[in-house]
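FW: tagging you since you asked about this chain on Friday. Here's the raw sequence from the shared folder, copied in full. Didn't touch anything.
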Amino acid sequence: NAGATMAFTTKPLSRPQAVTRATAAATVIALSALGAVSSAQAGTPIHGIIGTPNFTVSATSVPVEVEPFGADLDVFLHTLYVANNESASVSAIDVDTDTVLATIPVGGYPLEVVVNPNDHTVWVTNQDDDTVSVINARTNTVTATIPVASDPWGVDVNTATNTIYVASRNSGQVTVIDAADGPHGKDDTRS
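HL: got it, structure written out here
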């Protein structure tokens, strides 16, 4: 929809630095560098342009740890997982009640998060440790820490093959993890 505009009703959020989608219902989550999470719900289309919603930021801001960055949602468990860079942790937030369920210690400087809906695991890149933490979303505990190529940044899941891909920015490599082998996986690093 080239040239389409979006109208936003916004609530101030100190130092917003990242956003993520939350559900198919067009919810957007904004992460503040100062340690807060806010959400925005899609409203009605504007200017007669189909698919261009208004967004209204909720009055609720959930406090999390220092420097929240990457986030992903387990849609079945209604839990948002947020990587907190400076505190080496992940916040698990109940999106129905806007409460922090757990603060989960992970490796150094966690950046990105992806939820594997096949087994409700949460995969977190830890940049300082060159690892990926695997969290059991049902218990909010780390079940494995997997070494990957240097400087892991991005992470994604192919749900059809149950494969996790970890992009290591400065090393120019992608680590491919077979998540079907359980939380420890089998990895294969490729340049």
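FW: Residues 1-28, 32-36, 38-59 have pLDDT under 50 and may be disordered.
HL: agreed, and Residues 164 and 176 are 6 Å apart (CA to CA).
FW: great, closing this out.
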